[in-house]
Each structure stands twice: as structure tokens, then as C-alpha cells.
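[Discussion] Sanity-checking designs against the backbone

I'm trying to build intuition for which residues belong where. Below is a C-alpha cell string of 117 positions. I'd appreciate it if someone posts a full sequence so I can compare it with mine line by line.
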């Protein structure tokens, strides 16, 4: 069993779902130095996509913190990934990012707040 096995999703490929896939473009400015000749998408860029996806999923709420995040596998530029959310508590939402090859890429918890009253 490889060291990445704990991050492996249950199925070899992600199950069909309504979650849109997201892709970080190869020309994203953060990739120039991360790492030349062998680019990997920085975690902060992935978390930016998680925040955007959450705000699309839950209009009227916003992310105010990410107290727990674990990165499980690298993401390459142009590699599609899905973001899934699950209720955790009144102010918390769990998330998981899964690459198109079925590997869990990242998971964690978001702290949220309602916007506008």
C-alpha cells in the first residue's frame, strides 16, 4: 500500500455527480515559481477555489475561517477536481476536493457566517 492510499477515494474514479469540476489554468500566476519544470498548484489557490465554490453553493453565506485543512495529494495545472460540501454544524461545513482520477486532494472544515442580516 502506498503512502497516498489513505487519501484515496473509495472508487477508482469519482462517482457521477452534479458537482462541477474546477481546473487551475497552466498560466495561473502562482505556478511560475511553484515548481519550475514540475508545477504543482499551491494549496492557497485550491482553498481560494473552495471559498468560491462554497459562495456559489450557499449564496448569503461567506467563509470566515478554515480551522482544519489537510492536503492529501498534489494537484497539477489543468487537472480537473471536484469540491464537495457537507453540513457539519450550524457554523461549520466540511469539504473535500477530489481529483478527476479519484484521489482525495484535500479535505477540511469551513467556518461560515451569514451575510447581510
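Best answer:
Here's mine. Compare freely.
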Amino acid at each position: 500500500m502506498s503512502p497516498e492510499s489513505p487519501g484515496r477515494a473509495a472508487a477508482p474514479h469519482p462517482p457521477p455527480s452534479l458537482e462541477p469540476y474546477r481546473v487551475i489554468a497552466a498560466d495561473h500566476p502562482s505556478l511560475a515559481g511553484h515548481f519550475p519544470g514540475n508545477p504543482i498548484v499551491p494549496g492557497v489557490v485550491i482553498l481560494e477555489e473552495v471559498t468560491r465554490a462554497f459562495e456559489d453553493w450557499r449564496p448569503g453565506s461567506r467563509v470566515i475561517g478554515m480551522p482544519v485543512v489537510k492536503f492529501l495529494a498534489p494537484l497539477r495545472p489543468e487537472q480537473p477536481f471536484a469540491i464537495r460540501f457537507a453540513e457539519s454544524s450550524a457554523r461549520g461545513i466540511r469539504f473535500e476536493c477530489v481529483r478527476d482520477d479519484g484521489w482525495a486532494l484535500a479535505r477540511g472544515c469551513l467556518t461560515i457566517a451569514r451575510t447581510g442580516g
